Amino acid sequence: xxxxxxxxxxxxxxxxxxxxxxxxxxxxxxxxxxxxxxxxxxxxxxxxxxxxxxxxxxxxxxxxxxxxxxxxxxxxxxxxxxxxxxxxxxxxxxxxxxxxxxxxxxxxxxxxxxxxxxxxxxxxxxxxxxxxxxxxxxxxxxxxxxxxxxxxxxxxxxxxxxxxxxxxxxxxxxxxxxxxxxxxxxxxxxxxxxxxxxxxxxxxxxxxxxxxxxxxxxxxxxxxxxxxxxxxxxxxxxxxxxxxxxxxxxxxxxxxxxxxxxxxxxxxxxxxxxxxxxxxxxxxxxxxxxxxxxxxxxxxxxxxxxxxxxxxxxxxxxxxxxxxxxxxxxxxxxxxxxxxxxxxxxxxxxxxxx
Length: 354
Prior knowledge:
Elements: H1 4-11, H2 15-22, H3 31-43, H4 50-57, E1 62-67, H5 75-88, E2 92-97, H6 100-104, H7 112-127, E3 132-136, E4 142-143, E5 154-157, E6 160-161, E7 168-171, H8 173-186, E8 192-196, H9 202-217, E9 227-229, H10 234-246, E10 251-254, H11 257-269, E11 279-281, E12 298-300, H12 303-320, E13 327-330, E14 333-335, H13 345-353
Parallel strand pairs: 1-2, 1-3, 3-5, 4-6, 5-7, 7-13, 8-9, 8-10, 10-11
Antiparallel strand pairs: 12-14
Helix pairs in contact: 1-2, 1-3, 5-12, 8-9, 10-11
């Protein structure tokens, strides 16, 4: 392994001079000698000992990322956002994947095995001297277990702690659902069916609040039979949409794109066309949403921006000692596509007369 000492011997200067030149310190040597040192280092494929440098400076320029499960669709974009912001600010990332969904399916929240796994990863992160940590949730929920003795900035992404000890960054489900309901109402729809996720889900509860608030503001009655609960899977949409159609809805808000895919299939079987006979809105803006015919109107969560904001919070705390202990909600983007059609005034008046 090539060392600074070897480069100093070949260029006939001190070790300190080589170190200063390779670290970009101006005035460390003459222009000619600086070029010689850099050329020799390059030709010898010199690689600095980053660990030794970090120990000396007591600074690693490294952020740790702990993902509950890297294979879940929301996680890669959040990680990419963290990585992008760190790269722009000359920080690197160390990634640890807990693989909770692959290990335990959905049975993992705040269990002893979850705690033990997290503690082991945190010890490893500490040994690597990361300067901050982002914890990325598998799905949005409250996390009761707080990491013990964390001495570096710590931020939750796509989940939130029970106690406001650490900040968290999520997206605004409630506002997004409110905006979807407003859009459907402005297109003349008054009888709108909803296919939610599980009733205990944070996303279900927040989106339902936003949806209902929009209807209330437009003096539209909220009928319980028009709000159905699925399980986020395609089959839910397929099985549930029939009863909404029987009740005469003109639009359906599916709380994710996967359930919406089942709605496309079932409406086709019933001889109906999405975007013509019935309007449909999804959530998540999955890649497949534009592959449907017609393309699915949907909500795009700001996953990349969540990652960037988490990294920004950590670096701001490191650089400026700006400590933040609150929950942040980032806005979603609404994509209106051809799956939404407008109702005529005649149709609206006829509906109100029923």
